[in-house]
Specification:
The chain is an alpha/beta fold and about 475 residues long. The protein has 19 helices and 16 strands. It has 3 domains: about 120 residues, 3-Layer(aba) Sandwich (Rossmann fold), CATH 3.40.50.2300; about 150 residues, Rossmann fold (3-Layer(aba) Sandwich), CATH 3.40.50.300; about 140 residues, Helicase, Ruva Protein, domain 3. The strands form 5 sheets. A 5-stranded parallel β-sheet has the order 2-1-3-4-5, with helices on both faces. The protein has a 5-stranded parallel β-sheet with strand order 7-10-13-6-14. About 40% of the residues are buried. The structure holds adenosine-5'-triphosphate and magnesium ion. The site of magnesium ion has 4 residues, from α7.
Length: about 475
């Protein structure tokens, strides 16, 4: 989360948006003091004199934070919080309380308030709390967005490998790391599209800003629309409160639209409009909101063909595919299979507390000759099961769960030689090549090469030493 000393919000006009703050108190004096304090800090402040008025305001506007008095005659801070929580789980509340009612304030935290603060307090303490609450919520929305997608996206351990196609991709994303051009990632299921999207974000100038993910095929059209663009109160049944969409949450960051081929014609139009105009209109609202996000999209369909067939808009396609990337299927990455196997064995050794050190030549041959329709995901599952089932420190063919009668894709016996292949050796060999290529791509810049490889700089130095590169 970035702050520039003065808090999440700042006065700068540019792209940075001021955080919207609602202050609720039945005493006008407090409203005045706090309003002045936070306006000075660059927040956009609205006030409400009492719980009922506060509730109404929350319904109408999308706030980033609510600072609310606990004891109010018309509607207490706790009752207000409970009502909001019934349909908005993330809007952060800071509850202000007198010394006498700390117990109730603690109760408020149990009902989902971010924190409480006892009156009188130092303005600085409240400021810090406010800043934290807003950051906390941003993080929450990001996690929520990842959870919706339900894929682990840990790029720090990502295997890159030596396939030409992958190296081209890495060279390209390195080249465009300073810009925000839209990228379209195509590839079969399980080839690592989601992981690559994350890597592109991390390698871009938007690193450290939000990375919002949504699976366009997972939600019905109307839900997808409000998830993307947000909605105002009453926009549809159940919209009791206004809610911000992912595009707005992703301000200054990246929005990753997965399974973009699933977009309905109507949503295609809406997305095109928002990309062209760089603004969105929340469902039920008549106000446009300017957005500054970078779009990355992915699909396992052949979008160009869908354009030919008329199921995907040509104009949208060209907007999204300014930089088209194509992830090769695993069966075309024979060299990298060894590397992936090594990576996954290590991963599951750790997870399941195993000590597998070798893959038998026969098992490796089998692995290299599979059609891998599910690509890297399928390979990962096969290795996970094998590691779990292994009694000794070797993975043998029977642990892979392939029917031994099945026709292998091709015989690769010559590739593997006849001696025992040590996993360590194979991994080292592939690793060395990956490092050499990463250094070539980054023209010898070790820091960039380390980022490309998804490893720390220290680790890279150790490996350079180890392999005498
Ligand atoms: N380069 C890689 N290094 C390590 N693991 C990888 C790599 N690429 C993919 N994986 C793993 O393979 C699995 C599938 O990857 P991912 O979800 O990115 O594929 P996808 O192309 O987005 O699939 P889908 O089309 O089904 O959405 C994940 O568990 C991911 O962690
Ligand atoms: Mg995916």
């Amino acid at each position: 989360m970035s702050t520039d000393g003065g808090g999440v919000a700042s006065h700068s006009r540019g792209n940075r948006m001021a955080s919207k703050l609602l202050i609720i108190d039945d005493e006008q004096e407090w409203l005045d003091i706090l309003s002045l304090l936070f306006t000075r800090k660059g927040y956009e402040v609205q006030t409400a004199e009492g719980g009922v008025e506060g509730l109404k305001a929350i319904g109408e506007t999308m706030f980033d934070l609510v600072i609310c008095d606990l004891a109010m005659p018309d509607l207490s801070g706790i009752d207000l919080l409970k009502q909001v929580r019934s349909c908005d789980k993330t809007l952060p509340f800071i509850i202000m309380t007198g010394v006498g009612s700390i117990e109730t304030a603690v109760e408020a935290v149990q009902f989902g308030a971010f924190h409480y603060i006892t009156k009188p307090f130092k303005s600085q303490d409240l400021e810090i709390l406010a800043q934290r609450a807003i950051e906390h919520r941003q993080l929450h929305r990001q996690l929520e967005s990842v959870a919706l997608h339900a894929e682990p996206t840990d790029i720090s351990t990502m295997v890159l490998g030596s396939h030409r196609g992958i190296q081209d991709i890495l060279a390209k994303i390195e080249k465009i790391s300073d810009s925000s051009v839209p990228v379209l990632i195509q590839g079969e299921t399980g080839t690592g599209k989601s992981l690559l999207a994350r890597l592109i974000h991390e390698m871009s100038g938007r690193k450290g800003k939000p990375f919002m993910t949504i699976d366009c095929g997972a939600l019905p059209e109307n839900l997808l629309e409000s998830e993307l663009f947000g909605h105002v109160k009453g926009a549809f049944t159940g919209a009791l409160f206004a809610r911000r969409g992912l595009m707005e949450e992703g301000q200054e960051g990246t929005v990753f639209l997965d399974e973009i081929g699933e977009l309905t014609p109507c949503m295609q139009v809406k997305l095109l409009r928002s990309i062209q105009e760089r603004e969105i209109k929340p469902v039920g609202s008549n106000k446009n909101i300017a957005i500054d996000v970078r779009f990355i999209t992915a699909t396992n369909r052949d979008l160009a063909r869908e354009v030919e067939q008329g199921t995907f808009r040509e104009d949208l396609f060209y907007r999204l595919a300014v930089i088209p990337l194509h992830l090769p299927p695993l069966r075309e990455r024979a060299d990298d299979i060894i590397l992936f196997v090594g990576h996954f064995v290590q991963k599951f050794n750790q997870r399941y507390n195993k000590k597998i050190t070798e893959v038998s030549p026969a098992a490796m041959q089998l692995l290299m000759s599979q059609p891998w329709k599910g690509n890297i995901r399928e390979l990962e599952n096969v290795i996970e099961r094998a590691v779990l089932l292994a009694d000794e420190d070797v993975i043998s063919p029977d642990l892979l769960g392939f029917s031994l009668n099945a026709q292998p894709r091709r015989a690769d016996a010559s590739d593997m030689g006849t001696g025992t292949i040590s996993l360590q050796q194979a991994v080292s060999e592939a690793e060395k090549r990956a490092i050499q290529r990463a250094l070539a791509i980054t023209q010898g810049n070790r820091t960039k090469a380390a980022t490309l490889l998804g490893i720390g700089r220290r680790t890279l130095y150790d490996k350079l030493e180890e392999y005498k590169i």
